[in-house]
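Quick question about two entries, pasted in order.
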Amino acid sequence: MRKYLVILFAVLALLSFAVKSTVVVGTTDKIVILDPAKAYDYFSCNVLENIMVGLVGYKIGGSEIVPQLAQSWEISKDGLTYTFHLRKDAKFEDGTPIDAKAVAWSIERAMKLNGDPAFLLTDVVKSVEAVDDYTVKFTLKKPDVTFLSRLAFTVAYPVNPKEYPADKFFNGMPQKSASGPYKVAQWVRDVKIVLEANPNYFGEQPKTKRIVVMFYDDAATLRMALETGEIDIAYRHLDPRDFLDLKKSQFVKTYEGNSPQIRYIVFNVKKAPFDNVLVRRAIALAVDRQAIVDEVFVGLAKPLYSMIPMGMWGHEDVFPKRNLEKAKALLKEAGYSASNPLKIDLWYTPTHYGLTESDVAQVLKEALEETGMIKVTIKYAEWSTYIDYFLHGQMGMFLLGWYPDYLDPDDYISPFLGTEGAKSLGSFYSDPQMDEWIVKARSVVDINQRKAYYHKIQVKLAEDAPYVPLWQGVATAAALTNVKGILLEPTQIFRYYIIYAE
């Protein structure tokens, strides 16, 4: 009898620790498009990172570039040619081989369609060709030490030519193109997306066979869904105060991680009154970063004084700390006074970055109006309209955020301060000296030489002030205590395939 009881308890123990076949994730974020050539918002890219792979990727938990579709590669002595040798067992979801032609076709397609993230390729790639069935050669315009990191971003992921059209973006649900751990089984826009293990994936199968992502309208509903067990994980965006409350729960485990996510003000430098550098510098001196961190994010953020985030090599605190007297002096020099105040609109988007955005706008308004010489009108638009407004120069001062495309200081410099990148972010900033320094910083391998360029770039950034860095985020997530494998990585890749629930 004792023998059978031991066996029974052993079976029960195994059952109690059995891995669930489905894990449910909740978010207030949204998917915009699942086409690597167009996707440039966080959540669309994060889904792509779980259903597709590139030539190279990032080591789990770190920032080291590792092989994915490419088994190996060589770089020419002059740094202009990269030759990749592909693995021969990689297939798309429908069984189509991922060969050199598919890779080259996908890169050329992304460059030709010129979607939001295309500059990551067009800035550096002169040509790409399939040398043979499993060899791809890239020729660069100029040597660029960031090239491998650029290829790790989703814009460089191959797509199946049988599904994605060559001459336009794909707006549907991918059913033939998955090359990663998961494939898309169902997608009801803004309601849910269901990911299932991809049997044709060349790598290790995911720890959980099925991931369901549920989309919620607000942070309060997201929190309730977690506490009632409707979801297993809450990721983007719990209200900071809710997150602190959940830390006290015995049924929930919270996660915090360093994040290279930054938030900032953008000025359209071609639009009055922000075409006056004195106005931009005055606003940079008047903003109250610490108030935002304390009042809105209850300490779950850090004040930021450069566009290069803290913790990344090259970062320097180049923007001045808050100084209302100096701000007033600059405003007076620009022709403003208490009786003739600077009247400006401050724009934000209400849901894309979470529901704290309106609070951020209010804190900024109060800080600027504390000068006694600025009057702020707060305005907002939903994300799709917001993008259209800043791309077409309709907003003069607005809030944006940045998640890294690749972990290098260049990714926080060239998209903002290079002439072409600045157009896509709505600042329309352009300076020949800045363009020259950016190119030179990417062309040298020695890190000390690159640091010297980034020092000059950051100093000039603070002088010209086309952007005002505000704060650096802290990555957060919360999950039921039976969920394991959650990693908040420096790359900001949230890998569903390493998560499981017991």
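Here is the second entry:
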Amino acid sequence: MSTVENGHSKCVSIGPHTVGNSLPFTLFAGLNVLEHSVDSAIEVAQQLATTCGELGIPWVFKASFDKANRSSADSYRGPGLKRGLDMLSEIKRQCAVPVMTDIHEPDQAAPTAEVADVLQIPAFLCRQTDLLSAAASTGAAINIKKAQFLAPEDMRHALDKCERAGNNRLMLCERGSCFGYHRLIVDMLGFDQLKAMGYPVLFDVSHSLQLPGAAGDRAGGRRNQTLALARSAMAQGLAGLFLELHPDPEQALCDGPCALPLAALALVLRDLLALDQLIKAAPAPTIQ
């Protein structure tokens, strides 16, 4: 269940972890989409377990069973609901980790919640009332991504829809805003606006590096700037960071240009852990 942190901001429990804006950050990381074999997902999960264990970072494995919003009809979408949930179950069993995955339709909520600890609402769907209500009704923790076309303050409506369905195990996730064609930017001041709504706030650095449609029939990306962007956001004092990884991003079946190479994981997390500890050791004073 959620608890109240400092009388204002809620925390959300996910398996053994407690996620909150003033707590040490939780990492939500994994593959963009489950690929043909579960082996690549388990490779990523095992590396995450090792690295996060060494650094003392709580983590949740993330991968999608379906990417329903690919640029092209010919793009790989994933193994689908049944096979995907079987794969996520295997990852949970082998790596003893909570898992998060996307849902796109209301009737996916209940079966997915039987496996996933966190249901993720994709950014383009964060205004879909039936989807939010169905997800909330499962009682699972929910990560709601902010649409690229919404202002931060507009996310209060998505929260309200979930609360009316009886669920306050909610998190908000920033993932960049549209800025002209083929470009996303991140409004750093928007993090404070999201946190003011009283729920944990995550930052999806991988998708914020995306260049939508820039590669013709697929998205481009700027994965070489992962650390630069993640540092900027983590300095705002966030509950968690969202990263997508791949053993070989050039061979990834989805969003390889945005994926952090698995070999760079430890380097990035050591840097961000030090920054998170520094920021949260001395909360920023309020300026009127």
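Reply: Confidence is low (pLDDT under 50) at residues 1-7. The first helix runs from residue 39 to 55. Hope that helps.
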